[in-house]
Amino acid sequence: MVATTRTVIQRYLLPRQLHPFAWWGYALAIAVAGSTTTNPLLLLGFIAVICLVTVSRRGSNPWARSFRMYLYLAAFIIVVRIGFRVLFGGADGPTILFTLPEIPLPSWVRGIRLLGPVSLESVLSGFYDGARLAMIVVCFGAANSLANPKKLLASLPGALYELGTVMIVAVSALPQLGESLQRVARARKLRRAPATRTRRERLRVVETIIVPVLSDALERSLSLAASMDVRGYGRTGTQTPRDRALSLGLALVSMGGLAVWAFRFLGGVPDLRLLDIPVISTVLLAVGVGAAVAALRISGRDVQRTQYRPIRWGLAETLAVACGVIPAVTIYLRANYADAWILFPSVSPFQWPALDLPLLLVLIVAALPAFITPAPEIRRSA
User: Fold this and answer.
1) How many CA atoms lie within 13 A of 35 on its CB side?
2) In whole angstroms, how far apart are CA 225 and each of 221, 242, 322?
3) What membrane topology does the UniProt entry give (predicted)?
């Protein structure tokens, strides 16, 4: 029995690539959890957790190296939010940190002030808002770094296969453009072209670089499209008029239900509540999502396509999504049914942010995919 359990665990932990929908579901759930709070300690904790999961579970593919750029963008967002608070009047509280020379504006510009006194409350408000937006950006960067974009597009429902085919060709065009540029530059270096002197010679050099690069990238993209067409991409099955009408009707029902739900949600329309749950809005959302799923299944069941080595949804994918959904549900319930001051620390008067035991457990659960999911397959270059 012990040996069987050990074998199952070892087989589960074999290095493999997780389903891209699992990583996107995990990242979106963490983004939803962080968007419902302004506690900087919790937001920075989510950023640290996302960094841990991404660093430990990203592969060696080119898209996995893009996470650093999202971190730079997140830091830039925080700095810009604080900078805007300081630039356009930062005296929104009694605690003045310093005073900058104010820039006078014309009399017709009302309600806007440049520089002047800067308060602690204004700086903290900008930092809290910037940290929340930065956390969302980091979550999307983690999803892009962890999920294979080609596998993600290939795993789309059958009704969206045409969109997936177009996106695969478009996504592969940019790496092919960079590789073509390296090939042309290497060829020019081997030829040892003479140094340019006149303006016409410099324009000639640009022409001899841009035209071969674009033509080579276009030819390779067309070759990819032709190979995909040979393998059966872009071919549809025969759909009966009844199925076509049914899928169209379900799509209309889905758009109508989701539109009414969005109007009620954004407009704050009073709703009938059962156990403090909005009944009408919940029914509209469920009907809209259910009709959309049914329309996609009916439209895609006649599509004939194959996928090379598809990634199956397993226990690891379910655990990864659950580690994102549990924190989102916990913080939502905490914000609506319990003492929510810890999720929204006061700025004026200033209140020190804190974390209690449930929020620490939320961060621990969010960090579990770094340990309970299989490690990715690392391709080592010879």
Assistant:
1) 12
2) 6, 32, 37
3) Multi-pass membrane protein
Q: How far apart are CA 104 and CA 382, in angstroms?
A: 64
> How many other C-beta atoms are found inside a 10 Å radius of the C-beta of residue 189?
9
Per domain, the residue ranges of the chain are 2-163+313-372, 241-302
Lowest mean pLDDT among 159-163, 271-275, 282-286, 335-339: 159-163
Secondary structure letter of residue 104 according to DSSP: P
Task: Assess contact for 132 and 40: CB atoms under 8 A.
Answer: no
Long-range contacts, 360-364 (Cβ 8 Å, 24+): 362/33, 362/42, 362/326, 362/327, 362/330, 362/331, 363/42, 363/45, 363/46, 363/49, 363/327
The 10s digit of each residue's pLDDT in 235-270 is: 555 667 777 777 778 878 888 888 888 887 767 667
Nearest CA among 39, 219, 40, 56 for reference residue 146: 56
CA atoms within 13 A on the CB side of 350: 14
Report CA-CA distances (Å) from 349 to 8, 85, 94, 116, 122.
55, 18, 9, 21, 12
Tokens, residue 343: 């999720």
Both tokens of residue 332?
Answer: 């939502």
Strand-strand pairing, 277-278 and 273-274: antiparallel
Gyration radius of the chain's alpha carbons: 27
